[in-house]
Design goal:
mainly beta; Porin; 233 residues; 8-stranded antiparallel beta barrel; two-stranded antiparallel sheet; 14 strands
């Protein structure tokens, strides 16, 4: 136990700089979908829909560890309100669908700080991330007769012995992972930046007993945020 405590303390002693970064902004997300058949709220359509972007809230708290004046390691927790708005010709005139999902993400990024002078730097970041879906809903609004349906976005749809649905779920997996890339301008302790999230995990887990087709979906997101750095060391 003592060794486990001493190792991170020894690593901290080698740091040239240590800051906590608090950021808030907007995330614009969608999904990258492939598949001839696409399933939404228990129904299958013989065309992959066009997927529109959806805006949501973004908040993060990161630890920035500077080993040199240029090279840093950054990690922390991100809270992102993601989702998308599918559009399919099969039902576009009768209903409006959308997905709202709340993710907790853990990025680990290498960061290159380019000094521009007068307490100004340009920070380039890249690295992997892990994501966990906290909650989410698939929502569908029918124009006629004005009915709305909402189901849990996570989990798979359940069927009885005859193939009829007994419980409809959105079909998404809670796990997500991929790569994230960022560009940030830092002026003294204030920051403004943008990140791109490239999901690599197919997070659609549902199936249908009557069809062998299923889509592949991967998260895509673009984040713009402002922040403030609290210097610890």
């Amino acid at each position: 136990m003592l060794v486990m405590l001493l190792v991170p303390l020894a690593a901290m002693s080698q740091l040239k700089e240590f800051t906590l970064n608090l950021r808030a902004g907007t995330v614009v997300s969608r999904t990258h979908a492939n598949g001839e058949f696409y399933r939404l709220l228990g129904e299958w359509y013989e065309s992959t829909p066009h997927v529109d972007y959806k805006a949501g809230a973004y908040v993060s708290l990161h630890a920035d560890m500077g080993f040199t004046s240029m090279w840093h390691l950054e990690t922390g927790l991100d809270f992102a309100q993601m989702g998308y708005k599918p559009y399919c010709e099969d039902y576009s005139e009768t209903r409006d669908d959308r997905l709202n999902v709340y993710y907790l993400q853990l990025p680990v990024m290498a960061s290159c700080h380019v000094d521009l002078g007068r307490d100004v730097s340009l920070n380039l970041k890249a690295g992997p991330y892990l994501g966990l879906g906290l909650s989410g809903r698939f929502e569908s609004v029918y124009y006629v007769p004005g009915m709305a349906i909402s189901v849990d976005a996570f989990g798979t749809t359940q069927y009885d012995d005859r193939g009829y649905e007994t419980e409809v779920r959105g079909g998404l997996s809670r796990f997500d992972a991929g790569l994230t890339f960022g560009l940030e301008l830092e002026v003294r302790r204030f920051t403004v930046g943008a990140n791109y999230l490239l999901g690599l995990v197919d997070n659609y887990r549902d199936s249908n007993v009557l069809h062998e087709f299923r889509p592949e979906t991967r998260n895509r997101a673009f984040t713009v945020a402002v922040g403030y750095n609290f210097k610890v060391k």
